[in-house]
Amino acid sequence: MLKVEHIGIAVKALETSVPLFEKLLNTACYKTETVASEQVKTAFFRQGETKIELLESMDEQGVIARFVEKKGEGVHHIAFEVTDILAEMKRLQQEGFVLLNTTPKNGADNKLVCFLHPKHTNGVLIELCQEIK
Ligand code: ZN
Prior knowledge:
Elements: E1 3-11, H1 14-25, E2 31-35, E3 40-47, E4 50-57, H2 63-71, E5 74-81, H3 85-94, E6 105-107, E7 111-116, E8 126-131
Parallel strand pairs: 1-4, 5-8
Antiparallel strand pairs: 1-5, 2-3, 3-4, 6-7, 7-8
Bound molecules: zinc ion (ZN).
């Protein structure tokens, strides 16, 4: 894995959280994007090598809505950039980790993504992401 590409933070409303993070990071949100497959709206901030991704659910039953309901707003996942997502998925599977999707999905920010089951990663939801070239 190359680096922490971004940290995903679940929020109730981008409308209030985007201005909050703009103040916190002293940088403007450079992109908002809807990810239909996940039923979420996302907002991105660049901070050096890493990004912050805010996630707001568009669906009351969606994973982000359920996360916020159960745990409140907060860190939702850590995303690592990889050069070959299929190879990394295979390696992790062989190491006994459980993939939440067995084929890479189209994620936000022009990425192929795969999530690992947090049960096997000390409760941390891990995302692998590879830029689509
Ligand atoms: Zn993410």
